[in-house]
Inverse folding.
């Protein structure tokens, strides 16, 4: 490949790391696997944003929706939801579950960096556990994606592994992932890193995900960090 553009450079760096589609398709093939988020409860922070009215029913884009547990919750709360995942197995699971729950969601089976949603703006963009599986160079594409699809005054939220936590969360230098040709199961973040990466957005809150004393309709995991940001 001759690198002639930013797109070429992104592709070249992608090619040094694991092919994500195949990995996630096999991951979602067996629904009975003992994976904490193979459940149907929404994230505790998402429920709190909705209940406290940080986020009111609006057009929402979910990145890396998995089995659709958060998208379905939002649709039930009256949000108009577009939910994207590159795994066809995850999207099939989410589509079936949405039909069982009788909610309408626009599911898109696509890599978030190949999305074709021309001119579409969303008031809320939600990511639970996708961002930490992206390679460092893809943070650039990720911020471009948020800037492109988030309406002015819109908000976005991510949840990610904390560094060296119970579920992983690598704290290696960005350079090391390319040397090792591995993301080591996912990148770990802390408050300062999230503030640095998303500095062009206004921070509403960054905190640890709650995992104890949750209501039965809430999902939470230890050693996750959650953030809510606003576009000026
Ligand atoms: C840890 S899972 C979380 C799934 C879901 N958000 C949840 O919390 O239940 C990460 C998800 O991101 C998806 N994903 C990873 N990289 C992606 C990409 N580049 N484009 C679209 N989806 C991606 C995976 O297929 C997987 O469903």
């Amino acid at each position: 490949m001759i690198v002639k553009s930013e797109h070429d450079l992104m592709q070249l760096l992608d090619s040094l790391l694991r092919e994500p589609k195949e990995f996630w398709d096999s991951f979602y093939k067996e629904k009975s696997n003992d994976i904490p988020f193979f459940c149907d409860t929404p994230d505790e922070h998402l429920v709190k944003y909705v209940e406290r009215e940080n986020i009111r029913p609006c057009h929402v884009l979910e990145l890396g929706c998995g089995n659709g547990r958060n998208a379905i919750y939002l649709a039930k709360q009256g949000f108009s939801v577009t939910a994207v995942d590159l795994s066809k197995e995850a999207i099939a699971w989410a589509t079936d579950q949405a039909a069982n729950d009788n909610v309408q969601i626009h599911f898109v089976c696509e890599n978030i960096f190949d999305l074709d949603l021309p001119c579409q703006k969303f008031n809320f963009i939600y990511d639970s556990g996708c961002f930490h599986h992206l390679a460092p160079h893809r943070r650039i594409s990720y911020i471009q994606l948020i800037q492109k699809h988030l309406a002015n005054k819109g908000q976005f939220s991510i949840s990610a592994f904390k560094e060296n936590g119970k579920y992983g969360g690598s704290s290696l230098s960005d350079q090391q992932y390319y040397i090792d040709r591995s993301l080591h199961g996912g990148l770990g973040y802390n408050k300062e890193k999230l503030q640095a990466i998303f500095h062009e957005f206004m921070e509403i809150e960054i905190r640890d995900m709650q995992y104890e004393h949750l209501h039965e309709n809430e999902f939470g995991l230890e050693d996750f960090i959650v953030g809510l940001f606003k576009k000026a």
